[in-house]
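Just curious: can you write a single protein's sequence together with how it folds?
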Amino acid sequence: MLEKRLEVSAEGKKVYDIVIENSFSNLAKELSALDIQERKLCIVTERRVASYYLEEVKSILEGRCAKVEVYIFQEGEASKNLSTVDNLYHFLITHEFDRKDMLLALGGGVTGDLTGFAAATFLRGVHFVQIPTTLLAAVDSSVGGKTAVDLTAGKNLAGAFCQPAAVICDTDCLKTLPPDVFADGAAEAVKTGVLSDEALFALFEDGTLTADPGEVIGLLAGGEGAMFRAVEGAEDSASLGADDLRGINLTRDDVVVGIAASGGTPYVIGGLDHARGIGAGTVSLTCNRGAPVSDHADVAIEVDNGPEVLTGSTRLKAGTSQKLVLNMLSTATMVRLGKVYGNLMVDVKATNIKLRDRVIRIVRAATDCSADEAKAALDQADNHAKTAIVMILCGVDAPTARERLATADGFVRRDVFLFRFCLIAIILTVWI
């Protein structure tokens, strides 16, 4: 099971731990370390999240603490207000919560903000734990102690800084997220890299997550030559967009992302209409709200940049924001294609010294092996990280590891799970 722990400190003193796992199975252990045995716990969550995770979390905690109560509110930003907080106050008072008891924020950013603000102000402060279920909450709102609610005058105008007692992330929750909600979190990670962490941003830039030629195809109105010399009128032809997609043998198993800064380009609209007509997935990316192209796609992404510094020059704000969104989409796609194991990008092409060193670190992190063991496995696996990881975790040679990966459609997690499941079955059979 994946388990990572990060310590958050301030002025040389530990404030709380961020625990990253791929299951809620250790939730009771983590909370027990916070002395919950004599505490009442209130799980604060919204309706949609409750339908996925509430019963599991509640069953894990019952019997481990004095009592478990549940407060459920209507999902959405509209509930992030003082009225909802007031209702939560009354709920806590009715169930006789005091300052030694604890709140658990189970959900996304709205839940975390509501719960944190209530924890900061109820009885002048009670303990609370963040259990984020969205990527955006996990990478942003659950950490740092920022809590707030909206007022009629604007967003996040009433708030408090209140550090959680712990942040506990179950990465399996991310599997239930709609693509647009996952994308919100991915975009936040990209933004963080842009602003402050060169190494993080490089993960989205340096080809660590790679795709085979033909998996990702770029089409430009007027063809490749239009990159260097304008082909006048090409973008005004809707039929040309459809023809170009026919030329690459687009099928219903593919996804088309139509990019148009203005949101009205006929070439893009024609391509999207053709894609929808054959049952392919469609996404539009534009920099204007209510753009015409949005009506021609299953998923519409509208990044409102505001006016360009130089009027009409979409190479500035529009081009930059679209690049970030495309990085987000490609990264999320690579995750869904099995190019990630835990939080490790394992489908690395070790084409230079830097990437060779990275592959060694990735194999070590995935298997807890030594550097020498990682190097030996990679030598036998032709520097293929996935193969080396399966070799070490399953105790097999390189050809067997490749066969197992092929059977698991290239997913390391799936192959390792099947191996461990079979091993357990064998042990049980022998024991019985």
Remarks:
- The longest strand covers residues 13-21.
- The chain has a mean pLDDT of 83.
- The chain has three domains: 3-177, 224-336, 340-431.
- DSSP finds 15 helices and 14 strands in the chain.
